[in-house]
Every structure is written in C-alpha cells, then in structure tokens.
Amino acid sequence: MPDNLADLQREVAELGDRVAALRSTHSMYPDDSAETAEAALTELGFAQELLQDCGQRLAAAESAAAPRRSNGDDERAVLRAVFGQLSVPAVLLDHEGYIRRINAIGADRLGSSPGYLSGKPFATFVDLRRRAAMRSRLAAVLRSGESASFDSRLAQRGWAEDVHMTLTRLDVPTEAAPPVLAVLSPPLAGGEDEGPAPLEPEVEDQVVVLAARRLDVLTRMTRLLLASAGPGGAGRPLALDDAAALLADSYADWVIVDVCDLPGSAEQARRAVVSGPSGENGPRELVGALDPLDSEIPREVLANGNSVLSQLIEDESALGRADGAPVLSALGAGSLMCVPLKGSRGVRGALTLIRRSNRGSFRLADLGLIEEIGEHIGLALPPRAAG
C-alpha cells in the first residue's frame, strides 16, 4: 500500500490504466474472458484495499530498521546460486517488470542470450493479447506478496508458445523495491487452451525465399501502378484500397494508408484505407476511425518524412489508443514499419504495415522494399488523393 500522497496518486493512475486495458481486452476478445475476468477481480480487490487502508497507511510513520549489510549480502549470494542452478526457465524482474537476470534455460526459451535480454521489458516477450493480464498479476504480486500462477503466452520474432507462469515476490532486505521471480513451465493439463499460434514455416527464414517474395511483391505492385498510368488507365486515380489489399495479402497482416489531400499538409492527414484479414471487421473499423495524428508513428512519418522500423514492439501505444487500450494489442502486432508516401512536392501520406507476433519480424531489406513502393505510390497519387 502507498505510504505518501505521491505514491497513492501513482498507484491510482496505474490502476486506471490497467483496468482500461483489461476492459478493452475483454470487449475485443470475449473468448479469452476467463483470464481477463480473473485479473479484473484482482484489480477490484486492490481498489477495495486502497479505499479501506490508504488513510491509515499514509498516517503511519516509517519505523523499520535497516538490517545489517552482511546478512543482505549473504542472502543475495544464496539467491544467485539457487537461481543459476534452477532446471526450469526463470527470470528475475525488477519492480517495474524489466529483466534483471535470466538463467540460460530461460534465455534459450526467449530466443536470445542472457546479456541481450538483461534490461529489456519482460512484457515485450508476452503476446499482446496477454500483456494486460500479466502486468496486472505482476502488480498484485508486488503489492500483496502473494504468489500468482496462471497460463500465458510468449510470442516474438515468428514464434509463439503457451506457458504456465508463476510470479513470486522476493523480499531481500537490501533491496528498496523487491524483485519478482518469474518461472515458466508447460501449460497445465485441462486448462483453457486457445490452440497453438500458427507459425510461419521455417523455410521463410531462408534468404532466397525471402528475396523471391520481395521480388514478387514489387512485381505485382508495379503492375498495379502501371494499370493506372498506362493507356487503359490514363486519368484513373490509383486505387489505394487495391494497393493496400495487395500488401496485406502477400506481405503483412494489416496495412494502413494515411494521406494528405494537399502535399506537405501533414496536419490535415486523414486515414484513407485499412486492409487486413477477412472477417475481422471489428479491429478494421477501430483502426479506421482513428485520427492519424493521434498515432505517434504515422504522425512522425508524416511530419518529417523519415521511415520507422520496429522489429520488436515495446511501446504498445505507438499506433494510438482506442477506448483506453493500445491499438497494436487489438491487432496482435509483433512488428511494424511505416514509410512516407513521397510525391514530387513532398510527403503525400504514410504507409504502415503490421505483422502479427506469430510471423517473422520485418527486416531492413523489407523496409527498403516498402520505401520504394511508398515512393511509387506517392508519385501516382492524384493532386487530391482518393480513398
């Protein structure tokens, strides 16, 4: 519980953010309601504790004597030794959810080295649909000291895995803010199962196959652009929805096109096209209703004309929020890139491509291809862009 007014204000603000994220997750993914509802009940319990106890705790004086340094050092040495000998994936998190230490088995599970993973937000490696629940669990463990055990899903860089996660607060006397130990194990038998996330075939990582895919996309887009500029299409505006559908079908899961009706007028940008998987009209309408200037990444690309590549999405709100929840969570995003649509008189718009977490991340070679396509689209746009 908070000990002063500043801590109380911070706790209330964080509680509000987590509740908004859980509410939106529940409305968008009703099939995952059991896990979301359980996390929401945990947050409700915390809110009740705040109302009942914050006055008494704020009035209480601090009266804890610091333990001897040698005892703390001994406990930390034991902790390091036990941590290194664990035969299951284990991650030591600080009170903000960043990875402080990870054992070799855990690093292998997350697909990288312990040195690279240290300092990274652990939530980055949790599927976006499960992040809100995991963060609420972590906050509850830090507050109450009671361990939490629940099913979750790891997802990043083209792989996904269902796991059973156990969070335990470690009260170390020399630590001002106690760390949390996260242990990963196989999902419990008989638990809620949404099925394995479909992964791209391993062959997709081969350089030759990836190069062939890029060439195919460029060829198909060139044909589309020529159709609007050639003898049979002279004077016909470029169909942005056709261009977006082509990219969504062959290169990404979601494609967003924002345009400026007047060249260089980024402050008047509008969302022209949102293309994605068939049957997912809810997320499509959600994204289509947003103002591009309320999204950090498209806004920056429209303003300065520089591309953005996010191979690992750490900031879930980079594409804006809807009903208090990050849009990228609703789309199940794993990586994204955004490039300018450059015409002869400046930036005409922004092209955003999103891949889900069960697909391989966008790479620099992908960015180069989409930048070229973006320039061609920008040049093909009429004086007043059509949606």
Q: What is the mean predicted local confidence, pLDDT?
A: 77
Tell me the number of strands: 12
* Major sheet characteristics: 5 strands, antiparallel
Q: What is the level 1 CATH name of the largest domain? A: Alpha Beta
What is the straight-line distance between the termini?
Answer: 52 Å
Task: Note the overall shape.
Answer: elongated
How large is the share of residues in beta strands? Answer: 15-25%
Whole-number count of domains? 2
Estimate the helix proportion, in percent. Answer: 40-55%
Number of helices: 12
Known CATH architecture of the largest domain: 2-Layer Sandwich
CATH overall fold name of the largest domain: Beta-Lactamase
Question: pLDDT below 50 for ≥5 consecutive residues: which ranges?
Answer: 61-69, 190-199, 201-205
- The strand line-up of the biggest sheet is 2-1-5-4-3
Give a written overview of the molecule.
By secondary structure, the chain is α+β, with helices and mostly antiparallel strands. It folds into two domains: 88-185, Beta-Lactamase; 201-380, Beta-Lactamase, CATH 3.30.450.40. It is built from twelve helices and twelve strands. It has helices spanning 5-28, 33-59, 69-85, 104-110, 114-117, 128-144, 207-229, 240-250, 281-288, 296-304, 327-331, 364-380; strands at 90-93, 99-102, 148-156, 159-169, 180-185, 254-259, 270-275, 308-310, 321-322, 325-326, 333-343, 346-356. Strands 2-1-5-4-3 form a five-stranded antiparallel beta sheet. It has a five-stranded antiparallel beta sheet with strand order 7-6-12-11-8, sandwiched between helices. Helix 7 (207-229) packs parallel to helix 12 (364-380). It is elongated, with a radius of gyration of 24 Å. The termini are far apart. Mean pLDDT is 77; it is low at 61-69, 190-199 and 201-205. It comes from Streptomonospora salina. Residues 77-143 form the PAS domain. Pfam families: GAF, PAS_4. This is PAS domain-containing protein.
